[in-house]
Amino acid sequence: MDYSVLLVVFSFAVTVFLSYFLIPRLKRFEITGRDVNKPDKPEVAEMGGIGIIAGLTAGVMLAVFLNTFFGFSFNLLFVLAALLTVQAVAFIGIVDDLIDIPQKIKAFLPLFAAIPLIAVAAAGSSSLNLPFIGDIELGWIYLFILVPIGVAVASNLTNMLAGFNGLEAGMGVIVFSAASLLAWNHGNTEMLVLFLPMVGALFGFFLFNRYPAKAFPGDVGNLSIGAVLAAGVIIGNFETAGALLLLPYVVDFFIKAANHFPSSKWWGEYRGGKLHPVDGKVRGFAQLIMKLSKGISEKNLTLVFILIELVVSIFVLVLYWR
């Protein structure tokens, strides 16, 4: 039986239900962040990504239940190893949201979260699949270098392109919808079990994160988006597809790298209902869009990024579809 819709709906419901009760409590305990892209810079609940992780975990646990009692067949060890990696990255995000881990340390911590994936990769495939070429066996280089670097890079990339209402969740829905379609097309149930709940969880959180945002995902949410994608494509042996899905995030990385990874003024300067690069300088992909458009509303900025990710996702699906 196909349980795909059930996994999405259950994860969506858990995220919405938890977020409904979580957000006012986060504000009560002053776990908030300033919405710097608004003229009045209101305080918004931070760490809403806890709801995303809860929805994802609930969906995966439902899949485990269906596997145990209803014959929903998939490699349980691979899925649980991936979930453990994601939970470890989410924990790093929670700690960072609470006590602000130095950037140089935070960037490398996800390397250690990849240990469960290294363990299952050692028992499974240690090859890299390239389009038009096929599998390339890399042995210990794949296990001890590419797997941990993949988790660290993906989680940090999705944590960098963030800070605008609806952007993280909106782009995430597109990324994981495309990844789910790819998993379905190739009959990879392990990836589906991880990606479908993430679609539901991110869509549920989008209802609270869209403009005007009632909650931000925080590092716990942003880091986890990349970690889920990395973990899923590693257990499914679709690493290059996952890397291509992150192309917009890679563009943002290089622009910010050229500006020495600015910790401030990455946002938009609000003028007349539109956002413009602060001091007229482009410090990230979002500010490049602001400059090219000569000012853009936050809602439209998010929509542009969602459309960019949609185009990239269609390209990846065409490239890997069989």
Tell me what the structure shows.
The protein is mainly alpha-helical. It has one domain. It is built from 14 helices and 6 strands. Strands 1-2 form a two-stranded antiparallel ribbon. Helix 2 runs antiparallel to helix 3, helix 2 runs antiparallel to helix 9 and helix 10 packs antiparallel against helix 11. The radius of gyration is 19 Å and the shape is globular.
Describe the global form: globular
State the separation between the terminal residues, measured CA to CA. Answer: 23 Å
Rg, nearest Å: 19 Å
Q: Tell me, rounded to a whole number, the average pLDDT.
A: 94
Biggest sheet details: 2 strands, antiparallel
H/E element sequence:
HEEHHHHHEEHHHHHHEEHH
Strand neighbour order, sheet with most strands = 1-2
Helix/strand-derived class?
mainly alpha
Outline the low-pLDDT stretches.
Answer: none
Helix content range: 55-70%
Q: What is the percentage of strand-forming residues?
A: 5-15%
Main attributes?
322 residues; globular; two-stranded antiparallel sheet; single chain; two-stranded antiparallel ribbon; mainly alpha
